[in-house]
Design brief:
This protein is an alpha+beta fold. Helix content is 56%, strand content 7%. Strands 4-3-2-1-5 form a 5-stranded antiparallel sheet, with helices on one face. Strands 6-7 form a two-stranded antiparallel sheet. Strand 2 and strand 3 form a beta hairpin. Helix 16 packs parallel to helix 19. It is globular, with a radius of gyration of 31 Å. The two termini are 23 Å apart.
Length: 576
């Protein structure tokens, strides 16, 4: 992503101030703590047409005044920001996955006002009023203060999450968890639609006013001409009125139908939400352009035959399944072989997968065939719905994290499964999720699992696994999400999404350098050198230092092919 440049037109940043007690604190504070308080304050920041606040569920977003508290008691203008919406959105996503993630809220030490202070300082370099930040803990520790906690919880009822992963569930027909990205997209589409309808209505009203105004002018002008024209004083001159009326009608129709500028009567200054829509439209166009120019992922489409693998799986499981598990096997057939869509997979499908992956009484061959079928399914565009089922128990990803514990025969289809998931944007994004859970007494996440599978496969003794490891690393390196601007990443809070990718780039670089001590085939050499080149862009300081410290020199592979030589030149530019 190119470095963001501030928009020429600024966006107003406001602080919405609410008294959670609705005046009760003002009347009772002296009695409770021995001094007068005007209120117990909840604040939110309004910018880019939305109201943002922090609560137990993390960072939330609503239309201004759209929470249970309704209209604020007070609105203070903090200033104006000239940061593009894309920069703001990346920053608030960073806050939502680190410092202000779900579960970090503390009514005394880390509350909505702390978030407002952080956000306003970022946007305009100015914090919120001191009297809000200095709200004494004494009042919050009283029964009145404690009674406010349920109210704070309800603020998120009408809000949009979307800044964090895994904190909202949508009950579908078979009770699957909806993709947060999909939910956010739906929210944005709905908001864009409503804004578009409102804007079009204003434009139509303006056009109608202009047309009526033009019509009145023309009628007035016509009457004046008829009055001044010699001859029939009544103005009923048939030789002149006919053509004139036709011209008037044509001009009037033109005035009614001709598209008008959005300036003038519509208003020269767009509303903040309209500016956001413009920014988002521009960002979508940029994303589409990047998609057209991006490198296609490395996947393995023709390595396996779905029918053969499924038939082998069914034969191995003959007489070993419960009635419920046989139903799940039938659902897998519908999904993979009959193209029924992931809706065919019921609630118990992941339990069926877990039983096969973790039941030691079953042969390795059973797991190999199941993983092979899943590797074929990974190429389907709706596999993300299957993957989201796994975000509750992490059946698949826990198994994938333990790749080094599994027999080699199981590692091969497992690595293939992850490789093929890069076929579609939604499933490849799923592999990059940073939301953590506990497994074997350590915190892991999807991106950590993906990284471990990639490194283990690349550094294995198997050429087949190496090929798949190189493909996963290539696909990670060329992912759009990895390419945030370095300047922007420096602004992001520690532990946010893009910061994680800096660490991943370093870890994968060390694996690549170790792999380069061998004599890789040109195909894998090209994929790995391309990855190394991209990592020098993602982590512009650490990766070049690692190359120089650990080696080998990229020039060692010069002459392997022209395309490898071009990549070596790109890497060498970063080493100077």
């Amino acid at each position: 992503m190119e470095d963001d440049v501030a928009d020429e037109s600024g966006t107003t940043v406001e602080l919405y101030i609410y008294d959670l007690t609705k005046g009760m604190a003002a009347s009772m504070s002296h009695f409770l703590i021995g001094r007068q308080l005007d209120g117990i304050w909840h604040t939110a920041v309004v910018a880019y047409g939305r109201e943002y606040f922090f609560g137990p569920s993390g960072i939330q977003s609503v239309r201004p005044g759209g929470t249970e508290l309704r209209e604020p008691q007070r609105v203070e203008r903090i200033g104006e920001t000239f940061l593009p919406y894309s920069v703001f959105f990346e920053y608030i996503n960073g806050l939502g996955t680190s410092k202000f993630a779900p579960g970090t809220y503390n009514i005394f030490k880390h509350n909505c006002n702390c978030f407002s202070e952080e956000l306003t300082n970022f946007l305009v370099g100015k914090g919120i009023p001191k009297y809000i930040l200095d709200l004494p803990e004494e009042i919050l520790q009283t029964p009145v203060g404690q009674a406010l906690l349920p109210l704070i919880d309800t603020l998120s009822n009408s809000a949009n999450t979307g800044f964090t992963v895994g904190n909202r569930f949508v009950e579908a027909r078979i009770h699957r968890e909806a993709s947060p990205e999909f939910q956010l997209l739906n929210d944005e589409i709905e908001e864009a639609r409503l804004n578009s309808v409102a804007l079009e209505e204003r434009r139509n009203n303006s056009r109608e006013k202009r047309a009526n105004k033009e019509l009145k002018k023309k009628k007035k002008k016509k009457k004046k001409k008829e009055k001044d024209r010699p001859g029939d004083e009544s103005g009923n001159n048939s030789n002149s009125t006919g053509p004139s009326n036709c011209a008037d009608m044509a001009e009037t129709e033109s005035a009614m139908t001709e598209p008008q500028s959005t300036n003038g009567d519509v208003g020269e200054e767009l509303l903040p939400s309209e500016r956001v829509l413009q920014m988002e439209a521009e960002e979508r166009r940029e994303q589409e352009e990047r998609k057209r120019q991006r490198d296609p992922p490395i996947v393995f489409r023709d390595l396996l035959d779905a029918q053969t693998e499924f038939d082998a799986l069914s034969g191995l499981l003959e007489g070993k399944l419960t009635a419920e598990e046989r139903t799940s096997l039938g659902e897998l057939r519908q999904y993979v072989l009959e193209d029924e869509g992931s809706w065919a997979l019921g609630d118990n499908f992941l339990a069926f997968v877990g039983r096969i992956l973790y039941d030691d009484t079953l042969d390795t061959a059973v797991r190999v065939k199941l993983l092979s079928v899943l590797a074929v399914a990974a190429l389907k565009d709706d596999v993300i719905l299957l993957l989201h089922q796994d975000r509750r128990e992490h059946v698949i990803m826990n198994y994938a994290f333990d790749i080094d514990r599994h027999p080699h025969e199981e590692q091969l289809p497992l690595a293939l499964f992850l490789t093929n998931m890069f076929e579609n944007p939604s499933s490849s994004e799923w592999l990059l999720y940073i939301s953590e859970w506990q497994h074997r007494n350590q915190s892991i996440s999807n991106i950590r699992v993906t990284t471990k599978v990639a490194v283990h496969s690349l550094l294995s003794d198997s050429t087949e696994l190496q090929e798949r490891g190189a493909a996963i690393i290539h696909n990670l390196a060329t992912k759009e999400k990895m390419h945030k601007s370095k300047k922007l990443r420096q602004l992001l809070p520690r532990g946010s999404v893009s910061k994680v990718f800096d660490d991943v780039a370093v870890e994968l670089t060390m694996a690549l350098l170790q792999y380069f001590n061998n004599d890789p085939p040109e195909e894998q050499l090209y994929a790995c050198m391309k990855s190394l080149s991209r990592f020098t862009l993602i982590s512009g300081q650490e990766v070049p230092q690692l190359i120089q410290m650990i080696g080998p020199e990229p020039n060692k592979f010069r002459g392997a092919s022209q395309r490898v030589d071009e990549l070596i030149d790109q890497v060498n530019k970063k080493l100077r």
